[in-house]
TrEMBL record:
Residues 248-458 form the Histidine kinase domain. This is histidine kinase. The keyword Calcium does not apply. Residues 215-242 form a coiled coil. InterPro entries: HATPase_C_sf (IPR036890), HATPase_dom (IPR003594), His_kinase_dom (IPR005467), HisK_dim/P_dom (IPR003661), HisK_dim/P_sf (IPR036097), Sig_transdc_His_kin-like_C (IPR004358). GO terms for molecular function: ATP binding; phosphorelay sensor kinase activity. The keyword Chaperone does not apply. SUPFAM superfamilies: ATPase domain of HSP90 chaperone/DNA topoisomerase II/histidine kinase, Homodimeric domain of signal transducing histidine kinase. It comes from the Bacteria. It catalyses: ATP + protein L-histidine = ADP + protein N-phospho-L-histidine. Its EC number is 2.7.13.3.
Length: 460
């Protein structure tokens, strides 16, 4: 019971209602004391009427009137010159005087607490206004013993009533909480358990039905999470299937490219100037294709191969990327520029840096070609304190919101129709392998700029 939400709510509600009743208890007891004293004043005023009817009454009647009023003496001042008095022997000295004519709430509460906390009976004087303006004031002297006992009896009845109200209120709230909160929460938990049994089954995704706004928001958030998880699991399954297919294709393609590599070795021996100029590039392209086939599964299995770090000049690598892209441009209206200092050397894997820059330039070229408008691509590089900076800037149409949302996620960040969305994911992984970062500095309708930042470490 104590370990359940509804059980704890029941206990807390009972405690809080009791605390509220206790806060009400003190003013209630103070009010009861005031009413008790006013009743004594009223009874005393009625007793004093006998004196008005007959100015001389016998002692026995006077004592009987005082006994019925519950006081020792009565003073009724009707005007400045006349006082009507009923009196009896006083059992002691008056310890306190209370004037109820202009008593404040704080004073009444304080006096009530003093009465409750003082166990010994005291003789007190009470002053008040006569009923129906029957004089200027009325004053009585009385004992506090009966008053204190009456206050204690009233307080116990109030506490008992408060306890009953607390239990009834807590039980009603307990039932309401179980119906409005606990049962819907249990339903959500049960749905989560059913979904966990087969997360790939889209039919098990929760359908928000709660009428309470907070629970509805929780169900909608859970629905979004389950939908994304189901899609991710399906994507994972497709990736696993793709990995198996690529593994089979990669084996045969590598053999074909190896044969092509043997033919290029013979082409290199040609004395034709054009062939001599193009053969090295063809050899390098086929060599990269063979290397790519051998490492295709690395992305799906774990990560790109560990880069082989060497100190190399960046300008020739960028030039080779740009020359390869110029051959691919054809009749497209795309201009390529490079701004890399000839003496800039950096530490890294030149093959992986080539692939990273090539992917960025190719993405930019394809974006410009897809827009049907002319554009420019510029690859620049520079050094900053502790880092090498490579920027790929284009004047294309920029990235759409969906592509920015899934920028570096494989198979989701593609912009071109039919694109795989692997390019930026591969670039990011290659850059991370060098301890660097890939960021999209800006993108809008006038173009985009990607920045590769590679740390120098202990190399200057």
């Amino acid at each position: 019971m104590l370990n359940t939400l509804s059980g704890r709510f029941l206990i807390l509600t009972t405690i809080f209602v009791m605390l509220a009743e206790i806060l009400i208890f003190v003013p209630s007891v103070a009010r009861y004391r005031e009413d008790y004293l006013l009743a004594r004043l009223e009874r005393s005023q009625i007793a004093s009427l006998a004196l008005l009817a007959d100015e001389v009454i016998d002692r026995d009647l006077e004592e009987e009137l005082l006994l019925n009023a519950g006081v020792f003496n009565i003073v009724l001042r009707r005007d400045e010159a006349r006082q009507l008095v009923l009196s009896s022997p006083m059992p002691g000295e008056i310890s306190q005087t209370f004037d109820l004519r202009n008593a404040t709430a704080v004073a009444l509460i304080r006096d009530a607490l003093n009465t409750l906390l003082t166990p010994e009976p005291q003789l007190i004087r009470v002053i008040g206004n006569p009923l129906r303006d029957a004089g200027l004031l009325i004053e009585i002297t009385m004992d506090t013993g009966d008053l204190r006992m009456a206050m204690i009896d009233y307080g116990l009845r109030i506490l008992l009533l408060s306890a009953v109200i607390s239990v009834i209120t807590a039980f009603m709230l307990f039932l309401a909480v179980r119906r409005l909160l606990v049962r819907p929460i249990k339903a959500v938990v049960g749905q989560m358990q059913r979904y966990a049994e087969a997360p790939e089954d889209a039919r098990r995704i929760i359908m928000p039905t709660a009428g309470i706004r907070e629970l509805r928001e929780a169900e909608e958030a859970l629905k979004s999470l389950e939908t994304q998880l189901t899609q991710a699991l399906r994507q994972k399954e497709r990736l696993a299937q793709l990995g198996g297919a690529v593994a089979r294709v990669s084996h045969d393609l590598r053999n074909i490219l190896t044969s092509a590599q043997l033919f290029t070795d013979r082409i290199e021996m040609s004395e034709d100037p054009a062939v001599m100029r193009m053969a090295p590039k063809l050899v390098n392209s086929i060599a990269r294709a063979v290397s790519l086939c051998e490492t295709t599964l690395a992305f799906g299995r774990a990560a790109e191969p560990t880069p082989v770090m060497t100190l190399f000049s960046l300008a020739p690598v960028v030039s080779e990327v740009m020359e390869a892209e110029r051959l691919a441009i054809g009749d497209e209206d795309v201009s390529l520029f490079e701004d890399v200092p000839a003496n800039l050397k950096m530490r890294g894997d030149p093959e992986q840096i080539y692939r990273a820059i090539s992917n960025l330039v190719r993405n930019a070229r394809q974006a410009i070609s897809g827009s049907g408008k002319p554009g420019e691509i510029c690859v620049s590089a520079r050094t900053e304190p502790g880092a090498w900076i490579i920027e790929v800037l284009d004047t294309g149409p920029g990235l759409p919101p969906k592509a920015r949302e899934h920028l570096f996620q494989p198979f989701q960040g593609g912009v071109r129709k039919g694109g795989s969305g692997l390019g930026l994911a591969i670039v990011q992984e290659l850059v991370r392998g060098h301890g660097g970062t890939l960021t999209l500095r800006e993108t809008d309708g006038t173009g985009s700029c990607f920045v590769i930042r590679l740390p120098m470490g202990d190399v200057g």
